[in-house]
Amino acid sequence: MKKIITIILFSISILSVEAQIDKLAGPKIGVTMVQSGSLASILRKDVSMFSNDVRQEWTGSTGKYGAVMSQYGWQWETRFSDGGNVTGIVEWIALVGGMEKGMFLPSVSSMVGLRNSKGIEFAVGPNLSLGGIAMLIGTGYNFKFGELNVPVSITYVPSQNRTYYPSLTNSIQHSVIHPTGARISVMVGFNLSK
User: What's the pTM value of the predicted model, to 2 decimals?
Assistant: First the structure.
């Protein structure tokens, strides 16, 4: 079901490029709170990201504490289907997280949604990160100062279970399932017309 929704959203994104009315682009910054899980363990440096320590450490629990990381990136927004009081929007957002911890955790999201004439918006779409692909749900408010748009948003990515194989050298293979940890982000953008 998730794959079908993702394909539909990507198709809408591609089709909406032909119906462009207005394009905006600009930087986006924020903070992401991560629920306990494999990503929080990496952010807390309980385990290394790309080493065999991950396989050995994750034979047990991923911990009971979450983590916080900064986000920095760029947002491209295309408005389509302007209905007066409601405008359709497509957003592409590329972010890098965890730089304050010396990490490079990239993610890319595509969101399709609606914004009303008061600036309230809602959008959904796929998010691709090192943890895999997941559905992103967001809501926010767009402050307008002349030509400058300042979207403030809250997004949610649900936790997913991932399978790890901790013992690759033993003759007996077994797997361990750990949650990635849900993520809630508070973001601010600064967009100008292209």
Answer: 0.75
**Following CA atoms 25, 139, 108, 98 in sequence, which dihedral angle do they give, to the nearest 10 degrees?**
100
Q: Where are the alpha helices (DSSP H) in the chain?
A: 2-16, 38-43, 53-57
Cβ-based neighbour number of residue 91 at 10 Å: 24
Question: Which residue, 22, 21, 30, is CA-closest to 189?
Answer: 30
Reply yes or no on whether the pLDDT at 15 is more than 50.
Answer: no
Closest Cα partner for 123 from 155, 165, 149? 155
Specify whether the CB–CB gap between 114 and 90 falls below 8 A: no
DSSP letter string, 74-97: EEEEEEEEE-SSEEEEEEEEEEEE
Q: How many other CB atoms sit within 10 Å of the CB of residue 39?
A: 30
C-beta of residue 77 within 8 angstroms of C-beta of residue 91: yes
